[in-house]
């Protein structure tokens, strides 16, 4: 593996082969701006997920719509019309209005009881009597201020709110954390089918337990990066894997060829697809690659894991993270380093959670300290190492055998070969079989195992290739079984090649390198525009630059950047992207221009490695 601290190239990550040997490729800028990358989740019913409207569903709460004229004369003597109006306004939005205090010092017990009865007519108001500064007051409060959220949840309302989450230039976890914090609930109560790219504009379905549509909408409105819509209440939550795939709208900028010239490459891509590599995003782009951390986790070398996560990094952008790493390296004091992150509002990062764990646990309890990092985030490190092995083996397979199917390869069983088992859940391995007759299958049928302790392996030389790679890192197949249950890795199966669906493309011209070339889902909803591009394509020769607008659908867990790599025949690691992104400064190759470019790229990856979260589209 590449050395720690070095920015990984594609070859470091096992990404080295192409399918189309006749494609000369062409230069183009991938994800120059986050607005060049739109991702729409495709749900289990094959519907493309859109932001939709922000109408509230039936909340399961019915107001009596009491009016002041409905009160008796005796009640009107206790509650003035002005006070009644204040209560109605409060009931409409209790979370954003101050509690109402009613002075009842001179009233008897029966009169106070009557006021409580009037307040009970409002669905979102609770009241209690209290003594304050020598006075007796009835305080009208939001129900949530007196009862737990769980207790006030209407019985007839389903438990889960489902909604569409739109986010731009931030991670799924970051958006969920923001909403959870504003709704005063925990992140664990949110469910989603998969994480979406940070550098892009994405839509996906999300569920949350016992939080109302109004709360979620209010939480989203305070941040420009997120928006929500298409609310409904459902009995079941959304779980990982509850999707069919993703629809992509992509702008590849500054291409140097005509539409006619790229047509053969795109037609081949549509017909044959691309190698289903795990993209460079999976391994981080700065600092310590995530698969290095994963290797040490699988080796049960937890002291080394902590060191790799917290060690100083040469190109750290965030000041708080940089100082906290230095403090940890110099003093080994987790509390001191954690305080620096708290002041810099970075204590919710992986580093912050790990330092918190180290400050609470015995110095020899590394496993316990790491447990403060959410389980899914810890497993992402392990999965990155498994992905690295998969990439390496697949590249060797393509180099050695090209598109040939081998005896002993793995494929999904054909439907007619499947035996019903009375509805009982079956393991993945029961759906997989070995190839006996290679002529009965194509290369698109072939599965390559993601190595683990439960998967089947091909009954050919590929099993030895996995063993060889593991041996180079001092590991064996038994290493995927850990004494720490969390780090037991069963493995999985992944198609070696993938074909895209519903591919369309065209070349457009533009003059301003900073203008958006495709419209976001949010803009479409706000402006109700019927076109997907903002620009008038016209004749490309009339413009300074040309861009390829590409639309396609991919199954879940596939990387659009790997699809673009096959079409353009370019490398997609950070350093390569920075070079391609410098076209605006081609005539200004000054230190200032170079620094501007570096800052532009670094701004987008500032938190990517520090949070060590999976940036794939799943």
Description:
By secondary structure, the chain is of the alpha+beta class. The chain is 33% helix and 17% strand. The strands form five sheets. Strands 1, 5, 6, 7, 8, 9, 16 and 17 form an eight-stranded mixed sheet that branches. Strand 6 and strand 7 (201-209) form a beta hairpin. Helix 9 (290-298) packs antiparallel against helix 10 (302-310).
Helix count, DSSP H or I runs of 4 or more residues: 21
Strand content: 15-25%
Number of strands: 17
Low-confidence parts? 529-533, 587-618
Distance between the termini: 25 Å
| Structural class based on helices, strands and sheet pairing | alpha+beta
Mean pLDDT: 86
- Main sheet overview: 8 strands, mixed
* Rg estimate, integer Å: 29 Å
Helix proportion: 25-40%
Principal-axes shape call:
globular
Strand and helix layout:
Elements: E1 37-42, H1 73-78, H2 81-92, E2 100-103, H3 109-119, E3 125-132, E4 135-142, H4 143-146, H5 149-152, E5 160-168, H6 172-183, E6 190-192, E7 201-209, H7 213-220, E8 226-234, E9 245-252, H8 259-272, E10 274-275, H9 290-298, H10 302-310, H11 319-331, H12 334-343, H13 350-360, H14 366-370, H15 375-401, E11 410-412, E12 432-434, E13 447-450, H16 462-472, E14 492-495, E15 497-498, E16 501-510, H17 521-527, E17 545-555, H18 560-568, H19 574-580, H20 591-604, H21 608-611
Parallel strand pairs: 1-7
Antiparallel strand pairs: 1-9, 2-4, 3-4, 5-7, 5-8, 6-7, 9-17, 10-15, 11-12, 13-14, 16-17
């Amino acid at each position: 593996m590449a050395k720690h601290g070095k920015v990984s190239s594609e070859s470091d990550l096992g990404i080295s082969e192409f399918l189309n040997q006749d494609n000369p490729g062409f230069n183009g800028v991938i994800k120059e701006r986050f607005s060049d990358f739109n991702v729409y989740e495709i749900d289990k019913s094959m519907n493309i997920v859109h932001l939709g409207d922000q109408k509230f569903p039936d909340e399961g709460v019915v107001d009596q719509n009491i009016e002041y004229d409905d009160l008796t004369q005796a009640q009107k003597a206790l509650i003035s019309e002005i006070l009644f109006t204040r209560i109605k306004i409060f009931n409409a939005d209790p979370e954003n209005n101050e509690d109402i205090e009613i002075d009842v010092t001179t009233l008897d017990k029966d009169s106070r009881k009557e006021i409580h009865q009037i307040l009970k007519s409002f669905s979102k108001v609770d009241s209690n009597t209290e003594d304050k500064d020598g006075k007796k007051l009835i305080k009208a409060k939001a129900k949530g201020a007196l009862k737990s959220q769980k207790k006030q949840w209407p019985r007839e309302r389903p438990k889960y709110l489902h909604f569409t989450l739109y986010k731009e230039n931030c991670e799924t976890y970051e958006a969920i954390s923001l909403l959870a914090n504003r709704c005063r609930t925990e992140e664990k109560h949110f469910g989603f089918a998969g994480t979406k790219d940070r550098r892009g504009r994405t839509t996906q379905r999300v569920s949350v337990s016992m939080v109302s549509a109004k709360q979620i909408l209010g939480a989203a409105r305070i941040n420009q990066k997120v928006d929500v819509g298409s609310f409904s209440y459902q009995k079941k939550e959304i779980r990982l894997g509850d999707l069919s795939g993703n629809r992509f709208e992509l702008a590849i900028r500054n291409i140097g060829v005509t539409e006619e010239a790229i047509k053969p490459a795109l037609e081949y891509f549509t017909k044959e697809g691309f190698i289903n590599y795990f993209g460079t995003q999976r391994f981080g782009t700065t600092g310590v690659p995530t698969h290095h951390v994963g290797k040490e986790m699988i080796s049960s070398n937890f002291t080394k894991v902590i060191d790799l996560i917290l060690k100083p990094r040469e190109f750290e952008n965030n000041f708080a993270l940089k100082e906290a790493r230095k403090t940890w390296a110099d003093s080994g004091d987790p509390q001191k380093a954690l305080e620096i992150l708290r002041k810099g509002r970075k204590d919710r990062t992986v580093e912050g959670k790990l330092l918190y764990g180290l400050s609470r646990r015995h110095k020899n309890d590394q496993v316990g300290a790491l447990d403060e990092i959410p389980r899914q985030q810890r497993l992402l490190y392990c999965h990155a190492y498994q992905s690295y092995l998969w990439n390496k083996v697949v590249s060797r397979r393509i180099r050695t055998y090209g598109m040939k199917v081998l005896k002993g390869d793995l494929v999904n069983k054909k439907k007619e070969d499947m035996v019903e088992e009375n509805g009982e859940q079956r393991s993945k391995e029961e759906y997989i079989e070995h190839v006996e007759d290679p002529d009965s299958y194509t290369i698109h049928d072939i599965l390559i195992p993601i190595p683990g302790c439960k998967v089947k392996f091909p009954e050919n030389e590929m099993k030895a290739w996995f063993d060889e790679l593991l041996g180079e890192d001092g590991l064996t197949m038994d290493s995927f079984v850990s004494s720490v249950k969390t780090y037991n890795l069963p493995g999985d199966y992944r198609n070696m090649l993938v074909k895209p669906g519903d591919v369309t493309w065209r070349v457009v011209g533009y003059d301003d390198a900073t203008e958006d070339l495709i419209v976001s889902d949010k803009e479409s909803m706000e402006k109700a525009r019927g076109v997907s591009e903002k620009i008038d394509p016209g004749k490309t020769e009339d413009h300074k630059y040309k861009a390829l607008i590409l639309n396609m659908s991919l199954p879940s867990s596939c990387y659009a950047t790997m699809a673009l790599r096959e079409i353009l025949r370019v490398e997609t690691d950070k350093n390569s992207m920075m070079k391609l992104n410098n076209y605006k400064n081609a005539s200004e190759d000054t230190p200032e221009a170079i620094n501007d470019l570096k800052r532009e790229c670094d701004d987008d990856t500032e938190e990517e490695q520090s949070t060590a979260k999976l940036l794939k589209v799943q």
